[in-house]
Every structure is written in C-alpha cells, then in structure tokens.
User: Fold these one by one.
Assistant:
Number 1:
Amino acid sequence: MHNTRPKNLNLFTIHFPIPAIVSILHRLSGIVLFFLIPFVLWGFALSLTDDGFDMLQGFSSLFYIKLIIWIVFIPVCYHLVAGIRHLLMDIHIGTSLAMGRQLAIWTFIVSIFLLFLIGIWLW
C-alpha cells in the first residue's frame, strides 16, 4: 500500500485554531509556573523573618522589581483563566465549535484585564 498524500512537516505553515492556541499556551504557562516555584518559595521563606520581610518590602518599591513581579503574574493569570475554561469544558460548557472560540477569546480578554488590575495594584 503506497500512500501518495502530501506531508507537511513545516510547523510554521500550520494554522492552529484559537482554542488550540489557548490550550497550548495553558500548558506552557503551567511549565513556566513549575519553574517559578523555587523563586516563590525562596521569597516566602525570606519573608518569614523580620529582616527578610523588611528587605523584601524595600525591594518591592523599586520599579524593576515591580515589573518582574508583574511579569511573574502573566503566567499565573493566564493559567488561572485558561484552567477555568478547561473546567467549564469538563462540565460540557463551551464544547461546541462556536462557543469554544468565544471562550478562547474571552480567556485572552479576561487574562489581560486581570493583568491590568494587578498592574494598578502594584503601582
């Protein structure tokens, strides 16, 4: 049996639908969060002492530290919202094609809104 169908091995020419992009980014944000765990635990352990808490509080007033904290919240917010989307899909909300697209777009919108609110809270 000879298969003559063309094979497309160039991943840059494949156009994924937006629900697939949201799902892939959800997995990537989970990987990023996994690698951020040691830094978050280090900051938490440092904040448990009086001197460490004062040091962290002094650092948190710097613009670059606020920017780093805000950047760390990007995968947190996205993973949270995309996780809620996946939970809704587990209970059969948004499993149709049109609703899946709408939920995927709303995932991006709500994530950006949460990041905006966190930016206001930080600054």
Number 2:
Amino acid sequence: MKTATLKALLAARAAKTPAALVTEIDGGAQTLLCDRAPPGEVAIGAALQAEVDAARSADRSGTAEIDGKQYFIQIFNPPRRLILVGAVHIAQSLAPMAALAGYAVTVVDPRGAFATELRFPGVSLSTEWPDDALTALDIDRRTAVVTLTHDPKLDDPALHVALGAYPFYIGALGSRKTHGKRLDRLRAAGFDDATLARIHAPVGLDIGAVSPAEIAISVLAELTRELHGPKTGGKE
C-alpha cells in the first residue's frame, strides 16, 4: 500500500468515515474510496461500484470478478450505532450486550438521576431532551434507535426524529395496546401508515421474555435479524 493511501485510510478511520479499499488481485493496483482519498490505480466502473456498495451495506469484505478481473474489496466501516432512549433497567442490560456485538451505544435520558455513569459505566450518555439529542447524533443507515421509557413525553419526540431519518431499525417498548395509542398520536402528528410500519413494536422477538435482561436479548436478536436479514427497501 502506498504511503498516501495508508495515510488517507488512517485519517478516515480516525474520523469514523466509511472507506473501501479495492485491490486488483493480479498486479496489486489499489484504489481507496473515501473522502480525500489520493488518486487511485483501479478504475471504478459502475459494475465494480455496485459490488463495493453491496459490500459496504453488508459490512463484509470479499472478492468480486468484473470483466474477467478479480478484485478484493476491503471494507472499513465505523461501528454501527445504537441509541437507547430511556436509562431504564432494560437499557442497563442491552447497552453492554450491544457493545459486545459491535455497536457504539448512546443512552439518552433527560432525567439526570437515571442517566448516570454509575448505572451505565463506560456508556456514552446524553441528558438532552430526546429530539434534541437524536438530531445532534445525526441518525443514518448505520444507526438503530430504541425507545424504552413508556413515557410519551420522552419516546414520542425521539420517534418523530427517527421516523424523519433512515435508521436501519426503530423499536419501541410497550404492549400492543400501548403501541396502538402511540400510533394514534403519531398519525395525529402527520405520519402516514407506511412510515409508522417501520416501527418494531412491541420491540424484540417474541421469545417469551420477562426479565429486563431477557427483553434486552430479544431486542438485540430482532435488531440483528433486521441488520442481516433480507432488505425490503429504504433509503441508504
């Protein structure tokens, strides 16, 4: 790897900017795809770009063959992010589980007595109001959002922001009855049924979970299924 390419790659990783390194297997020519990358040696046509885009979406490096040439596509994506709204017992279990699964976790709760380092050691905390916090966190397709408070004053503003963006997963805690009332409020706020269908609620896979830790497992399982399962559309 050339020095300029290595420096650009290291800078992208330090800035948590997605990058892809395309190497022509026969000959070793390389092109780095990221902001401020140096001129590349591999021509990135439409077919090869499509392979790069697919590898980025899958978070998986691999090989591709285009017009008889073999390429290795190495993906350098920043960690997926999980934003938990509500510093509650489920969040205390879910945050470390998600971190082990490779997520950068942020817990949002304006109630300072709940969002404390003692209750969430090593977890990024925000005590801003949820809509302000989520707006500042700049939700994208590498982000998942889960609301856990049961309080419409906290969950609804977060959902307004999440539904206006394109996280790969939106989940909301609560029974079907609670979610029905939530949907009524969101419809009244102007969201249509197609948009509301993006919310996973009651949140988590139905595995008979009862305790906060079990519910956390079910949420992470559903989130993982959404991440790696078949895609049904949405904005990248």
Number 3:
Amino acid sequence: MLPASGPGNCGPKALRCCPPYYNAHEVATLLRSVESAPASGPNFRRSQEVFAIRDVLGEVPGLWPLLATDALRRALAQLFPAGCHLTKSIYFDKPAGSNWLVAWHQDLMINVDRRANLPGFGPWTSKPEGISVQPPVAVLENECTIRIHLDDCDATNGALKVVPGSHQRGVVPAAEIAGLTLAATSCAVPAGGAMLMKPLLLHASNRSTSDRPRRVLHLEFASVELPTELVWRERKQVMQ
C-alpha cells in the first residue's frame, strides 16, 4: 500500500489510499441521496447479504454533483491530465454481519451499448442491466477505479485485500491466482476516504465479522475511447 499522502498517480502503481475526500456532513448527504433511489429495476440487487445499485449515477442523477468536489476533480486531473470520462458506477452495501465474500479476481469486464465483432474483444455477457465485454488489456490498463468509502472500513467489515504488483501481469490465469495471494495486504480506509486502484489488480474481500456496514461508491474512469462500433454504456464526460 502506498503512503496516504495525497491522491497521487494511479499510473505505474496499482493502488493508493488517500486522505478523506469528503467530510462527515458530505458523507451523510451522499448516503441520503443513495437511499432516495427507488430500489427497483434490473440495476438493483437486494438480499440479506448485499444491496447493490449498478449504474448508480444513472439511477440517482443528483449524486454526481455531490461527488464532484474539488478533491475528486484534483485527483482525476492528476490521474488523467488530458481529461477523462466515467465508464462505470456501482454502489455496494455490505451489511453488518454479512456472510457475502468476494473471491480473488481482476475487474476485466466493461459495460458497452451493444455487441460487435471486434478483434481482441471477448468474452461477452448479456444481463438484464445490459451488455458487457472483456476488452484488450490496453483498455484496462488505461482505467483507474476510485472507491469512495462511506463507512470506516477495515478487515472486520470487508476491507479489500489486494496483491501488490499483480496489475503488471496482465490477465492472470485462474490457475495462477492462488499462488499470488500469499503476498496479499488488507486496505483499511476511513469514512470519506478514497481508494484508487487499477482494474487489473487482484483483489478480494472477506465476510464481515463486525456489526458495522461497509458502504462504497465504486467509480471507474478512463481516457481511452473505444472503437467506433462501441460506446461505453455509462459514459459521462468529466469536467476538470
């Protein structure tokens, strides 16, 4: 884990944990905005173990003006000096005592508007919320994820575990993942703080063993454009 000295650059490094981007009042306002969502439709998943909203910025349009603080814009300007666009947004709520865990994986899929016969793109998936595809590694290497934590998060309530340096291996074959996880580290993040990571970074999270929730806004950004046959399904231009 890198020192929490500022937003830093996600470039050659895969992970950075930053000082809080949002104060307690701003975090409370973000939570109220999310909780105002209707909680129905294909982008919503609710069970005893998890509550998730895919395309949360599309489902809760008032959320982006609350998120786009000077701190977030400065971070994006350092990550993408030539500008960027949002490519995916998800809200995750791991309730207290949740038995839900996430196995070791890389974030390999992007959301697009349609299928297209393009070299290097695939496999494809079609779900009620839309179409996704695994793009060439060059696309994934251009992306950076910013995970905004709305609760204090540590190993007891589902903090991410990561394998430092694993993003430099490209797409890691499933048979090799277990051998890499011995070098894993856990990433504690305070409420209002942000964790910056590359999608190709191997990561996982354990079941919750505490009475505290773990609510996170997961935002993916990129500056690269897709081939003309495809459009990022959640594309939103970011003004810096």
Number 4:
Amino acid sequence: MPILLIGIVLIIFLSKSTVTIDAGEAGVLWKRFDGGVVIDQAPLGEGFHVVAPWNTVIVYEVRQQELFEKMKVLSSNGLDIILETSSWYMPKPEDLGRLHQEKGENYLERVIKPTLRSAARSVVGRYTPEQLYASKRDVIQSEIFDEAKKILDGQYIELNEVLVRDVTLPATIKDAIERKLKQEQESLEYEFRLVTAAKEAEKQIIEAQGKADANRILSASLNDKILQDKGIEATLELSKSPNSKVVIIGSAKDGLPLILGNN
C-alpha cells in the first residue's frame, strides 16, 4: 500500500512538473516562491520542459493572428459609417513576461480592440462620405495602421497590418454619390466629344487652308510662257506616237501646235 501511494504521489508530481509547448507558442513562467512572473529571462520555447510543481507556465500563441472588426464610426459631417477591418497582430516574444504581468492573457480585449476602434474613429472622422466611398480607402487604411501602431508598440504587441475590407454608407448617401459620379462621368464624356469634334474641325480647316494656299501658289506661277512650253513638250511627246496624225505648228489657240489625226 505505501508503495502504491508513493507511486501515485510521484505521478502527480511529474504531471505537475512538466509542460509541453506546441509550435507557434511560448510559455511565461510564474514562480510562486521567487518573485512571480519571470520577466528577465526569455520565455519558454517550443518543446518539453520540466518545472517545479509549485510554479506555473502560462502558454501564449506568438504566431501572427487576425482580428476582424465591424464597427460604426462617424464621418466628418456626422453620418454613420460601417467600417469592416482585418488586423494582423502578434505579441512580442521577448516581452511576453511583461505583457502577461501588465496586460494579462486577455490583452486582445483590453488593449488591441480599444486601440483599433479609437484609431478608426479618429481617422474616419476626418473625411466626408464622398471621400471614403470614392478614393480614400487606401489612405484611411494607412492612417489607421499608423495611429494604432504608435500605441501598440509600447504595449509589447506588434501590429503588422490593418486592412479596410469594406466601407458601408447609408443607402441614401450611397445612391446620391453614385448619381453624382455618373453625372460627372457623362459630363466628362460630353466634354471629350466636344474637344474631339473641335480638333477634327480644326484639322479640316488647316487642310483646306493648305490646299487653297497650294492652288494660289500654283496659279501665280503658271504664266502664259510656261503654259506654252508645257504644251509644246506634250505635243512633241505625242508626235512620237505611231498613230497617224498631222501636226500644224502655231494653229491652235494661244499659238500652240494643233494635232489632226485619223483617230
């Protein structure tokens, strides 16, 4: 009987003295008789560890985690905006002891969520619904990340990214914005057609002016002497043709040769 009792006590002792830490986790050691949370040593890493049975190991996940948030915030003109975000965060392993001592295992609710909500309200409150809907999503995403990261860096937490997944406006505001954007697009298309038509008309005017200038220059250069010379040249070329013909020099109008043929 004493041997059995000793065996049971030994089994309990061993079960209380060992801990296995899985992949992506780390352990904070709490010493009951030696100062509580250990903050001056690295946390326990992955694998099998033996600890005194009166001490405790608190296991934390230290890989990157995701927080999805859907929150109601106000735009600069006081309208309700529904903002959906995803945030990637992880505790800093080297500061895990301090995180446990100052924030506790529920640091997500105590620190991260309030920080992100505050940053989102602060950033979105700078913009109108039109800006949020049309072109500012990347901007507010970056600004929320910057504001939240400044706070969380001092809380032993690493914020890796904040993504704005969706921005939902009141239905009436969304419809009004879409109508306005459609009208602006139609106006831009109309202006483009006007500019295109004006450029085409200008092109035609330039071409017509060019033709008129060319005709005027050509007319000014063609005097009677030049025309007679050209006529004689053409007559001489034609006289070389094998077709039957009679060439009478100087008998045509303006003194040009007259050609008579049987064809």
